[in-house]
C-alpha cells in the first residue's frame, strides 16, 4: 500500500511539473540566414526516420507516436517551422539503407560510427546515456569492476558495445552473455550472477516492474552512449540548420526529457541508529585521514625536491654536451677542407664555411645549387655514373682533381674526395674539397727540373715519393723518396727504397690489406692512388698517414705515380674523438630516456598503490555514513553526496596521473596498449579511429614496448593539435623479423621540405627515440592529403622465435 501511494504521488508530481514546464517553455528562435530560411520554405515537410524502441519511440493506445526522440524532434521541427513525416524502421540497418536510398532526411538518437560517417553527418551529442552496474541492495556501496573477485559473474546483453568494451578493458571480469537486458536482470534475481550491466534507458523501463524492485544501481562502467542527430551527407545545409536549432534548445529541456522518460530509483536507507555516535567516529576518522594525507604530501614534496635537484644536474650535463656538439660544428665549419653534401640529383644540401670561402660564396648561398655550377662539365649522366660508382664502394671513397668555377668566374684547382653516406632516411655523397693550387704549381715545377723537384720535395711537410712501373705486368719500385722520411718515420730514404722494403714495410699489420688493395687498384687502372691508414715508425710509434698520388702515363705502358705521405695523426685523432663523443652523447640520451621511464613507472606505482588505498578506505567510510545517516538531515546528505563526488573525482585523477606516467596496460602487451590508447584518444577527441593489431604478438622488451607506445602518443597528439583530421587509422603488424607501426590521418597534412631546423621538436624526438631503439621512422605527408607515420623496429631473434 505504501509503495502504491508513493507511485501515485510521484506520477502526480510529474504531471504537475510537466504542465508547469509546458507553460514556461519559450519558443525556439534559431538565427537562420537567408539561404537557410529559403531552404526551409522549399522543404515544409521533413522525413524523420525512427527505430521503434522504448523509451525512445513507442506507440500509445491511440496509435500515436510517443517517446524521448519523438518529443525532441517535435520541439526541434517546431523551432525550424516545418512539419514531420514520421517513418518507422525495425532496426538501425534498415534506417541506414533508407538513408542511402534518399528516403529519410534526418534521424535522432544515433551513435557516431566510422561506417556511419559515409552516410550521415552527425551533430554534437545532445544526450549522454551511461551503462550502469545493477545488483541486489546491500550496504557494500559502489562496485569497482577492476577489483571484482573472480567468483562474481557479470551478466550483460551480448553482442553489444558494452560487452566489447568490458572484454577489452576489464580482462579480470567473468562475463556471461544474455539474450536481452531483461534476461540479464533475471539472472541477478536467480542469483546465477552477481551483477548485470544495462544502459540507463533500458534500466528505467525494467525497474518499473515489481519483480525488480529489490535491485539497485551499484556502479558505472564508464562507457556512455553519446546520442546525436544525423542528417544525410548530401544535405549539408540541413545539417547546419539542425546544429543551430539544437544549440538554441535550452539544456533544461534536455534534462526534463531525461527525467520524464528515464526516471531511475536509487536505493535509500531509512534506518537511523546511533547518528551522533557515527558522526563523531566519522569526524575522528576524517581528521586522521587528513593528518595522514598531510604527512604523505610532505613526504612526496621532499621526494619531488630531491628529484628536481637530480633533474637540474642532468640538464646541466646535457647543456655541456650540447655545447661540445656546437664546438664540433664550429670546428667543421672553420676547417681548411671544404665539405659538401650532395643529393642524388646533384644538388647541394650542405656546405661548410671553408667551402663557401674557398669558392667565394656567401653563407648559405650554395645550398640547393646544382653541382654543375662548380664544374660545368659534370652533366647529369656523368654525375649518376659517379654516384653509382661511389655507392657500390660502400664505405670507400673516390678522389680526383678538378678545376672548380668560383663565384667570380675564376678557376680554382681542387682535390676532390667522394665518400658515400647514409643519414637517417636519405643518401648523400660527401665531397671533400682541398685547394691544390700550390700543389699543381709544385707539380709543374717538378716536371721542369728534377733538381728543382728534389729541392722543393725536401721542404714539403711530408714524405714525397715517386713510384714507377716500367711496363704492364712488371714490378714497381720507388724511384725517389724524400729525405723527410728520416724525420717523419725514422728510416732514411735509401733504406725505404730497397725492393723488399718500400712504404708497405711501414704500414701497420692491421691496415696492410687495405693498403695493398688500394695500391693494386691504382696500378691496374693506371689511376691516382689514395690511401689513409696507420704506419709504424722506427721506434714503433703509431702514426696516421694520408697518401695521395697522381698517375702520369708516359707511353709504352710506363706509368709514374708522384705522391706525398702526410702525417695526419692530429686530425685523425680529433676525428675519432669527435665520433666517440657523438656516440657517447647518443648513449647518454638513451640512458636519460630509460631513467625517465623508470622514474615514471615508480611514481605511477606509488600514486596508484598508496593514494589509491587511502581513497578506497575514505570511499568505504563515506558509503557507510551514507547508509547510516541518509535521509535524516538533508544538509548532511548533501555534504555526503558532495564528498562522494570529490572522492570519485580523486579516484579518476589518481588513475589519470598513474596512466599518464606509465599506463598499466603496457604489462598486457604492446598490442593491447596501442588499442587502449587509441580508444582513449577517440573518446577524448570524438575522432573515429580504426585499429588493426595482431592477435598473437611476441612479448617485446620493455624498452621497445615503451618506445613504440610513446611514439604512438606523440603521433596522436600531433593529429589532435595540428591535423584537423576526421578519422585516424592505426596499424601494427609483424613482417620479416620487424615490428611495424603506422598512424594515418586524413587531415590537412604538411610539406616536409618546408620544415625548418628548430621546428617540430615532437618529430625530432620520435626520430631520436627510433634511433635509440635501432629502428627507422618515416613520415609521408602532402598538403591536403593527410599524414602517414611509419615506425619500424627489428625484433630480437629470441623474441621472434
UniProtKB/TrEMBL annotation:
<keyword id="KW-0902">Two-component regulatory system</keyword>
<dbReference type="Pfam" id="PF13426">
    <property type="entry name" value="PAS_9"/>
</dbReference>
<dbReference type="InterPro" id="IPR001610">
    <property type="entry name" value="PAC"/>
</dbReference>
<dbReference type="InterPro" id="IPR035965">
    <property type="entry name" value="PAS-like_dom_sf"/>
</dbReference>
<keyword id="KW-0472">Membrane</keyword>
<feature type="domain" description="PAS">
    <location>
        <begin position="449"/>
        <end position="526"/>
    </location>
</feature>
<dbReference type="InterPro" id="IPR000700">
    <property type="entry name" value="PAS-assoc_C"/>
</dbReference>
<feature type="domain" description="PAC">
    <location>
        <begin position="398"/>
        <end position="448"/>
    </location>
</feature>
<dbReference type="InterPro" id="IPR005467">
    <property type="entry name" value="His_kinase_dom"/>
</dbReference>
<feature type="transmembrane region" description="Helical">
    <location>
        <begin position="274"/>
        <end position="295"/>
    </location>
</feature>
<feature type="signal peptide">
    <location>
        <begin position="1"/>
        <end position="21"/>
    </location>
</feature>
<dbReference type="InterPro" id="IPR003594">
    <property type="entry name" value="HATPase_dom"/>
</dbReference>
<dbReference type="GO" id="GO:0000155">
    <property type="term" value="F:phosphorelay sensor kinase activity"/>
</dbReference>
<keyword id="KW-1133">Transmembrane helix</keyword>
<feature type="domain" description="Histidine kinase">
    <location>
        <begin position="602"/>
        <end position="797"/>
    </location>
</feature>
<keyword id="KW-0418">Kinase</keyword>
<dbReference type="InterPro" id="IPR036890">
    <property type="entry name" value="HATPase_C_sf"/>
</dbReference>
<keyword id="KW-0812">Transmembrane</keyword>
<dbReference type="InterPro" id="IPR011712">
    <property type="entry name" value="Sig_transdc_His_kin_sub3_dim/P"/>
</dbReference>
<keyword id="KW-0808">Transferase</keyword>
<dbReference type="InterPro" id="IPR013655">
    <property type="entry name" value="PAS_fold_3"/>
</dbReference>
<dbReference type="Pfam" id="PF07730">
    <property type="entry name" value="HisKA_3"/>
</dbReference>
<dbReference type="GO" id="GO:0046983">
    <property type="term" value="F:protein dimerization activity"/>
</dbReference>
<keyword id="KW-0732">Signal</keyword>
<dbReference type="InterPro" id="IPR050482">
    <property type="entry name" value="Sensor_HK_TwoCompSys"/>
</dbReference>
<dbReference type="InterPro" id="IPR001638">
    <property type="entry name" value="Solute-binding_3/MltF_N"/>
</dbReference>
<dbReference type="Pfam" id="PF00497">
    <property type="entry name" value="SBP_bac_3"/>
</dbReference>
<dbReference type="Pfam" id="PF02518">
    <property type="entry name" value="HATPase_c"/>
</dbReference>
<dbReference type="GO" id="GO:0016020">
    <property type="term" value="C:membrane"/>
</dbReference>
<dbReference type="Pfam" id="PF08447">
    <property type="entry name" value="PAS_3"/>
</dbReference>
<protein>
    <submittedName>
        <fullName>Multi-sensor signal transduction histidine kinase</fullName>
    </submittedName>
</protein>
<feature type="domain" description="PAS">
    <location>
        <begin position="332"/>
        <end position="376"/>
    </location>
</feature>
<dbReference type="InterPro" id="IPR000014">
    <property type="entry name" value="PAS"/>
</dbReference>
